[in-house]
């Protein structure tokens, strides 16, 4: 898969970006190839990228298909290659999974003819502005011969099904296997056969199986970029779907239509984030340590046991002293509207004395 730009370099309005898929060498004739491209171009679905063109020549094995490229590019860039912007949250990942499954369902069962992938991976999933997903790089069933030898250094060889690798057999259930690996990548944030991880953890399918089957351990392999913000019931369901997709016997794998039905149910289990994402290690007053394995799960540092000393008895026995009851003398009311200066001073003196007594009485309780 390649990113390409077409148009006039001097005018940005006349330029557009596209995704170019380089096809495996084939003995297919040029005219037959062109007819097949025209057939593929007739496929129309909301979750399929448009086929814009092709590259092919007589007496040349180099052939390419050109598809539309969406705003965010491919899913593998968002999961592994992008350093700017926030990580994909749970709801976005489930939206991408559902859109991709709907695209595969159309190719397998609903289109005018059956089409599929030889190599289906996150590189084949294009993400638009609203994080809806479309598929690119799809082809006809007859495009990849069953006896084709698949290169071991292929970019997407990690997602190719067992029967395709061993016997060259390509069926819709082969794409179901690949979709199961994509679900694992959405759950764990890891790429299958990634050399950055220890040897025993590189095969994502084998490494994740014990965790997928254990409800108590599933959260240990969830992508740390999610920061624990996902509905556990939905994660459990996605893990179950992935396990069914990765059955060794193709007949035991579900169809993409069945997967779509289950993913639609998961959409109702959306996780609402009430607070902005933040790194737990950055929270003030908390010491965090990062584990070197298990996806770098962040765990709190152990706290020392501490119990506060009991309060002293002297403090517990202290109680405010209650002052003796004092009579509250009210100043006599004057019958006349005019008062002499001496009488006025006597009433003012009585008021201040009465206020002092009231404060002492109240403060004592």
Describe the structure.
The protein is of the alpha+beta class and about 375 residues long. It has a domain at about 70-270: Transferase(Phosphotransferase), domain 1 (Orthogonal Bundle). It contains ten helices and eleven strands. It has helices at about 30-40, 75-80, 90-110, 160-165, 170-190, 205-210, 230-245, 255-265, 315, 340-365; strands spanning about 1-5, 15-20, 50-55, 65-70, 75, 115, 125, 135, 140, 290, 300. It has a four-stranded antiparallel beta sheet with strand order 1-2-4-3, covered by helices on one side. A three-stranded antiparallel beta sheet has the order 5-7-8. Helix 3 (about 90-110) runs antiparallel to helix 8 and helix 7 (about 230-245) packs antiparallel against helix 8. The longest helix is centred in the C-terminal third of the chain and has 23 residues, at about 340-365. The protein is globular and about 110 Å long.
CATH topology of the domain at 71-271: Transferase(Phosphotransferase), domain 1
User: How much strand content do the residues show?
Assistant: 5-15%
In the CATH classification, which architecture of the domain at 71-271 applies?
Orthogonal Bundle
N-to-C CA distance: 83 Å
Tally of separate helices: 10
Q: How large, in whole angstroms, is the Cα Rg? A: 36 Å
Which CATH class of the domain at 71-271 applies here?
Mainly Alpha
- Give the biggest sheet: 4 strands, antiparallel
The oligomeric state is single chain
Structural class: alpha+beta
The residue fraction in helices comes out at: 25-40%
What pattern of helices and strands is seen along the backbone?
EEHEEEHHEEEEHHHHHEEHH
Query: CATH superfamily of the domain at 71-271, called what?
Result: Transferase(Phosphotransferase) domain 1
Q: Judging from the principal axes of the Cα atoms, what is the shape?
A: globular
The low-pLDDT segments are: 141-156, 273-342, 355-365
Spatial sequence of strands, sheet with the most strands: 1-2-4-3
